[in-house]
Design goal:
This protein has helices at 5-9, 13-50, 83-132, 134-137, 141-237, 288-299, 323-330, 384-393; strands at residues 337-342, 348-355, 358-365, 372-373, 406-407. The protein is α+β, with helices and mostly antiparallel strands. The protein folds into three domains: 14-47; 83-223; 288-420, SHC Adaptor Protein (2-Layer Sandwich), CATH 3.30.505. The protein has a five-stranded mixed beta sheet with strand order 4-3-2-1-5, covered by helices on one side. Residues 239-277 have low confidence and may be disordered. This is SH2 domain-containing protein. Residues 189-215 are annotated as: Disordered. Residues 316-408 form the SH2 domain.
Length: 422
């Protein structure tokens, strides 16, 4: 689905519309094929599930009074809180429970540390008392017991005080954690809403794209119908040569034209047709020398660019000149002036046309045994001269109304097509 930018630049807007419409049709065709293959895969999965063992798990939906699946839309039933308030409360409760769970785990670890700390301190103190033999040194055993009890009470007081401090710190951390979790849930909800809005925007863009496709499809159908009507009118008028028998032995050989026994040879440039083994044409022009060879071996036998009445090179025919050179030749001409030049983009020609506000360029395909515009004119012409004569009677595009009126000739000597006929 790639179009060479240089080739695309040679097409006018109507040609581009028809080309893009054809590309869109191909994309839709491929998508339908992919979708059909996907549906086949889903059907196979359903058939496989149907023949599974009876002990496999099943889901049975709760049904309402109407027989359909029972559905409760949160926040819309009678007595329900608004959906936003329910979401806020759920997020706050979820954050509180998570923070409480984390705080309980922290407290268990801290309580074990405190118990171990004071248990070790008590064991150490008892060991010191035994080591120093306080009971032996102090005659009053009761005093020793009181001293030990007092020490235990002091340790207990310190233990309780440290517990309270740790509980307060854990409670503060729990509150902070609850706020953090709430904010994270709030951000996630906002992100989901943003994604939903983006999805709505994407659906709107898709709808507009489909409408544009339909519009292009309508324009393309209308253009084809209009061109068909123009062709019929031109044939009925009988003013365009060769239209009724375009493909009845349309190839010209030995310097003779269809429907004529003798053709006058161009007096200044001798038409030389190379004789020998047919050459293999590249897929597209790659050099000026290749284009010249193509013209000599394929176009000269078909009398391309030759005036039917005089047998000379037609006034409107030009050689391998650029787009800028063609526009320079047509710059001071009246509307309807035109010339036909050998294209460097395709195996064919470019018809350059002068209209009120500027210039138009139409590619003419000559790769087969007929001549026709790319993307605009569906009519096939036996010769290049037939195509030009046809559009002296009928417009090229119905929207632009381009009618070929005045041919633009040469301004230099030798003419720019001289190398083609050497």
């Amino acid at each position: 689905m790639y179009i060479d930018p240089d080739l695309l630049a040679e097409l006018n807007e109507e040609q581009k519309q028809i080309l893009f419409y054809k590309m869109r049709e191909e994309q839709i065709k491929r998508w339908h094929g992919w979708d059909a293959n996907l549906d086949k895969g889903v059907s196979k999965m359903k058939i496989k599930a149907k023949f599974q063992h009876n002990n496999s798990k099943h889901i049975q939906w709760l049904q309402g009074a109407d027989g359909d699946v029972w559905v409760w839309i949160m926040g819309e039933a009678q007595g329900d809180k608004p959906y936003e308030l329910i979401c806020e409360e759920l997020m706050a409760e979820r954050a509180r429970q998570q923070a409480q769970k984390e705080a309980e785990e922290q407290w268990k670890k801290k309580e074990a540390e405190i118990e171990k700390k004071f248990r070790d301190a008590m064991a150490k103190e008892k060991a010191r008392i035994v080591a120093e033999k306080w009971k032996v040194e102090i005659e009053d055993r009761k005093a020793a017991k009181q001293l030990e009890k007092k020490f235990q009470e002091e340790l207990k007081r310190r233990e309780d005080e440290e517990r309270r401090k740790e509980e307060e710190q854990i409670r503060q951390r729990e509150e902070l954690r609850a706020k953090e979790l709430y904010l994270s849930l709030k951000i996630a909800q906002q992100q989901n809403q943003k994604n939903e809005n983006e999805e709505e925007e994407w659906k709107e863009q898709l709808r507009k794209s489909k409408e544009a496709d339909e519009d292009r499809k309508h324009k393309a159908r209308w253009a084809r119908a209009e061109y068909h009507h123009q062709s019929l009118r031109a044939i009925q008028k009988g003013k365009v040569a060769g239209l009724s028998n375009l493909f009845q032995s349309s190839m010209l050989t030995d310097g003779q034209e269809l429907g004529q026994e003798n053709v006058t040879v161009y007096p200044l440039l001798k038409l030389h047709v190379p004789v020998g083994k047919s050459w293999e044409r590249p897929s597209r022009p790659i050099s000026r020398d290749i284009i010249i060879r193509w013209f000599k071996e394929e176009q000269i036998p078909r009398q391309a660019g030759i005036d039917k009445n005089t047998g000379c090179v037609a006034l409107w025919f030009h050689g391998i000149i650029t787009r800028e050179m063609a526009e320079e030749l047509l710059m001071n001409k009246l509307e309807g002036s035109f010339l036909v030049r050998v294209s460097e983009k395709i195996w064919g020609y470019t018809l350059s046309y002068r209209h009120q506000t500027g210039f138009k360029h139409f590619l003419v395909d000559a790769s087969s045994d007929y001549y026709s515009f790319l993307g605009v004119d569906p009519n096939r012409h036996a010769t290049l001269t037939d195509l030009v004569d046809f559009h002296k009677e009928e417009v090229i595009t119905s929207s632009g109304g381009e009618l070929l009126v005045e041919p633009c000739g040469q301004v230099k000597t030798p003419p720019d097509y001289s190398m083609l006929f050497e």
